[in-house]
UniProtKB/TrEMBL annotation:
One function term, GO molecular function aspect: DNA binding
Region (Disordered): 47-110
Official protein name in the record: BED-type domain-containing protein
Keywords in alphabetical order: DNA-binding, Metal-binding, Nucleus, Transcription, Transcription regulation, Zinc, Zinc-finger
Entry annotated with the keyword Transcription regulation: yes
Pfam families noted in UniProt: hAT-like_RNase-H, zf-BED
Length: 609
């Protein structure tokens, strides 16, 4: 049985169905177009509101169309559909503000300043072309930014270019930044590490030298175990091999220092001192050079530490010093030599000045010999303290007595708590260093109540018998000037030559004031101190006075003031000698400068030829 075909076979039916479909499509089209017109009208009214904004592609129409243009578009659409009766819609007449075509463009969003380097720059106003300036807060340099430009120039300026940025604020570039600065975009290749036995041995030797380790430390079991765990391939050297490595490092450093000295054209000052071992059967000499480099930085280097055979006469000391100066090629660059105050050192200077070194010294060697100022102060104060030797010895023994046992220290702590004294431990001095004696006396005065209370708790009244705390206070007031001067002149991080003359002059004036004290022992101290002062500093020191004159804070007025106060009768003689020394020093430097200039002209002329 054949299945019936559901599709009608009549042509009239087919035409009737097609007309029905066409009418439905026309109805739907009219409805869509009418709704589209209403939406266009509503959006046009919204576009006229100042608080709303339409995008330029909304419904395919330009948002700048006027209501009349919209009505015309609607009419054309209806006529195209065959609708001849176009309804006359009353469109409200609204005033549309005239806008600049440039203002219709999208406003670019303000670029976000996310880089950390923006905190060091000031952002300017954006110009019409989209650019703006970035001004450095340190130096004021400006960069043009905007329109997609990155902050690489700001980073480079802050890290490298700007000289006014503090070093502590500079940031080290990361590995990525270094790669970008090198102009590569590929990842940096990793270096292949290779074990180097000699490099490790050299590092071990430097550690031993820097920390004063003994050579036999390489024989310690746990050190060898640690090095084996750290690097199994490393062969720990023997004691003799380590010693040889240290000597090789010394030779390398010595050659580097010699080359440095040969390139410097400045003058060198030298300090020397002698030591003896505990048995006093061997003596040692140290020689240190001081200089200022081309960057005006103060340096010092130990150029000799060697045994000095006895007897330590002036000739032996002079021969040893001159030998080291010739070894380092510094005998022609010497300015002065600072030594302790002793007869052997005075003979040493005379021996040196009688040799060939005198021909290269400025001012005919008048400035060569300098006495150690701190050592002179030590000798002056030690002579003054001899007057109170009994009281100082009592305080010293009291300090030792309290610290002798733990039980006494417990009693002293109870005494400190009872009288509410400073929580400090008693300490005694080194008798050869007066500044430690001053600190001991100062500590005893602070703990005076605790010491008296300890004598009661220990049932030992003789411990503080004979101590006069008022006398001790007067002594401390007199010694404070000497102690402050010692601290100032003992500095190692700054030049002190320009400070010696005013500091020593203040010490001399303080000694003279001590003569007017109400305590007889202070008057006696001042007499002994001034006798020692007059022995070493009669008429002042010429090099110290010249350094004071060259100090822009002092100049010649400070020297004139102190000389009038200390040596009024010798004022004219001293000032004349000072003027002659300054002129001689100027002529020596002028001669050296002219010779150096001629050598430079000669070398440049040879290059031209």
């Amino acid at each position: 049985m054949a299945m019936a075909d559901p599709t009608p076979k009549c042509d009239d039916c087919n035409s009737q169905g097609r007309s029905l479909v066409d009418s439905l499509i026309a109805m739907i089209t009219d409805e869509v177009k009418s709704r589209f017109s209403i939406l266009v009208m509503e959006n046009t009214e919204c576009a006229s509101e100042p608080d709303l904004e339409l995008s330029e592609d909304s419904f395919g129409l330009d948002p700048n169309y006027t209501p009349e243009e919209i009505q015309r578009v609607q009419n054309e659409a209806r006529q195209a559909d065959g609708d001849t009766q176009v309804p006359q819609t009353q469109v409200p007449q609204t005033e549309v503000p005239q806008t600049d075509p440039e203002s219709t463009k999208k406003r670019k969003k303000r670029e976000k300043m996310t880089s950390k380097y923006w905190q060091y720059f000031i952002r300017g106003e954006t110009k019409e072309d989209g650019f703006y300036e970035a001004k450095c807060k340190f130096c004021g340099h400006t960069y043009d930014m905007g329109n997609g430009r990155g902050t690489g120039s700001l980073m480079h300026h802050f890290i490298k270019a700007c000289e006014k940025v503090p070093k502590a604020m500079r940031h080290k570039p990361s590995a990525l930044q270094k790669m970008l600065q090198a102009g590569t975009t590929t990842a940096p290749a990793l270096d292949v590490w290779e074990f180097n036995q000699m490099k490790c041995r050299k590092g071990l030797a430097r550690m031993v030298v820097a920390h004063d380790y003994p050579f036999n430390c390489v024989n310690h079991y746990f050190l060898r175990e640690f090095l084996r765990d750290l690097q199994p391939q490393f062969k720990v050297p023997s004691r003799n091999t380590l010693r040889a490595d240290c000597l090789n490092i010394y030779a390398e450093e010595k050659d580097m220092l010699y080359d440095l000295f040969s390139k410097l054209d400045c003058k060198f000052s030298f300090t020397s001192d002698l030591w003896s071992n505990k048995g006093r059967d061997r003596g040692f000499m140290a020689l240190t050079c001081h200089y200022i480099d081309e960057s005006w930085k103060l340096h010092k280097r130990v150029i000799a530490f060697c045994p000095l055979p006895s007897p330590h006469t002036g000739k032996n000391i002079a021969d040893a010093i001159y030998e080291k100066l010739v070894l380092w090629n510094l005998d022609k660059k010497a300015l002065c030599l600072v030594l302790d105050s002793s007869s052997a050192n005075d003979a040493c200077v005379k021996e040196l000045l009688s040799g060939p070194i005198l021909d290269t010294l400025p001012a005919d060697g008048q400035l060569f010999h300098q006495r150690c100022g701190c050592h002179v102060l030590n000798l002056i104060v030690q002579d003054g303290l001899d007057v109170l030797d009994g009281e100082i010895k009592t305080i010293r023994e009291t300090m030792k007595y309290i610290r002798h046992s733990q039980s006494r220290m417990e009693k002293f702590k109870r005494a400190v708590a009872q009288v509410k004294a400073p929580d400090k431990k008693p300490a005694w001095d080194v008798q050869t260093r007066w500044n430690s004696t001053y600190l001991m006396l100062q500590l005893a005065f602070e703990l005076r109540k605790a010491i008296e209370r300890f004598a009661v708790l220990d049932k030992n009244p003789e411990l503080v018998a004979g101590l006069d705390w008022n006398k001790l206070k007067a002594l401390l007031d007199c010694l404070k000037v000497f102690y402050d001067a010692t601290l100032t002149l003992s500095g190692t991080k700054y030049p002190t030559l320009n400070l010696f003359f005013p500091e020593f002059c203040e010490v001399c004036l303080n000694i003279k004031k001590m003569r007017n004290s109400n305590y007889p022992f202070i008057v006696e101290m001042s007499l002994q101190m001034y006798a020692k002062w007059d022995k070493y500093w009669t008429g002042g020191n010429m090099l110290l006075a010249i350094a004071c004159v060259f100090d822009p804070r002092s100049k010649l007025g400070v020297v004139e003031y102190y000389i009038k106060e200390m040596y009024p009768n010798d004022y004219d003689t001293f000032m004349a000698n000072l003027n002659n020394c300054i002129n001689a020093l100027f002529k020596d430097y002028e001669k050296a400068y002219n010779r150096q200039s001629q050598e430079q002209i000669g070398s440049s002329s040879q290059q031209v030829r």
